[in-house]
């Protein structure tokens, strides 16, 4: 895997370490943490700080080192992942996903890829929860240009395979791209290969321009 240069911001990692993110956002951050040694260290540090604060507030709290399980807080609880290993191996082989992420995704009900647009497919992973954020896989063919768009809420994208770029940077496997209603961009998939991303999103894409307005009624996922 290439060097990871794009990461979730510190606030997102702190929320993840404190287990205060909704399910879908937590899953996407967990996927990044599983692939990124730098963010693993950051989450451990935030967990240490949180554990120390709890210990200071509650004299009955153990003073020993916290038992860190960075991925245990994903919605499906990876402590019970052994039964999913065969499905994970199949998913990893089928889509060339990193094995750590394939293990996570294998714990959710299997879904089929659905057509979204020319060269673009998507697969549901988690429906929208109380915070309105859902998670899905997005797969785009080499050279695919996404429509220019902004967002109704957050769009957190974790690159699993392939790569894409837009005006804010180039995103390789392991990279994280955080966007919201203030970001207007047009991702373009690298010509070198298929790109698969895990996405947490609130609301729908807001397509821009005349062509985007024509397409908007059909882009619902």
Task: Provide a quick synopsis of the model.
With about 220 residues, the protein is of the alpha+beta class. The protein contains six helices and eleven strands. It has a single domain (about 10-50, about 70-220), classed as Jelly Rolls (Sandwich).
Tally of domains = 1
Distance between the termini: 29 Å
By CATH reckoning, the class would read Mainly Beta
What best-fitting shape do the alpha-carbon axes yield? Answer: globular
pLDDT averaged residue by residue? 80
- What is the percent of helical residues? 25-40%
Number of strands: 11
Verbal overview:
There is one protein chain. The model is unreliable at 61-70 and 75-84 (pLDDT under 50). Helix content is 30%, strand content 24%. Strand 2 and strand 3 form a beta hairpin. The chain starts with 9 loop residues before the first helix and ends in a 6-residue tail after the last helix. The radius of gyration is 18 Å and the shape is globular. The protein has one domain: Jelly Rolls (Sandwich). The chain has helices spanning 10-17, 23-35, 37-57, 85-95, 99-105, 209-215; strands at 114-117, 120-126, 133-140, 149-151, 155-161, 164-166, 169-171, 176-179, 188-189, 195-202, 205-207. A six-stranded antiparallel beta sheet has the order 1-2-3-10-5-8, covered by helices on one side. It has a three-stranded antiparallel beta sheet with strand order 7-6-9, with no helix packed on it. It has a two-stranded antiparallel ribbon with strand order 4-11. The chain is built from six helices and eleven strands. It has 221 residues and is α+β, with helices and mostly antiparallel strands.
């Amino acid at each position: 895997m290439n060097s990871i240069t794009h990461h979730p911001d510190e606030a997102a990692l702190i929320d993840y370490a404190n287990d205060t993110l909704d399910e879908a956002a937590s899953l996407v951050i967990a996927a990044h943490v599983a692939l990124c040694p730098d963010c693993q260290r950051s989450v451990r540090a935030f967990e240490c700080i949180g554990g120390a604060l709890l210990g200071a507030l509650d004299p009955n709290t153990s003073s020993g080192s916290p038992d860190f399980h960075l991925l245990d807080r994903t919605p499906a609880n990876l402590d019970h992942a052994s039964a999913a290993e065969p499905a994970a191996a199949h998913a990893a082989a089928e889509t060339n996903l990193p094995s750590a992420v394939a293990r996570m995704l294998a714990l959710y009900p299997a879904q089929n890829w659905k057509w979204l647009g020319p060269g673009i497919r998507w697969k549901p992973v988690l429906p929208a929860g109380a915070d309105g954020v859902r998670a899905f896989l997005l797969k785009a063919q080499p050279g695919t240009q996404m429509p220019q768009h902004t967002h109704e809420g957050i769009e957190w994208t974790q690159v699993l395979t392939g790569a894409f770029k837009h005006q804010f940077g180039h995103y390789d496997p392991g990279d994280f791209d955080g966007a919201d209603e203030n970001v207007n961009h047009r991702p373009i998939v690298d010509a070198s290969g298929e790109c698969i991303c895990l996405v947490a999103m609130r609301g729908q894409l807001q397509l821009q321009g005349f062509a985007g307005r024509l397409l908007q009624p059909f882009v619902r996922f």
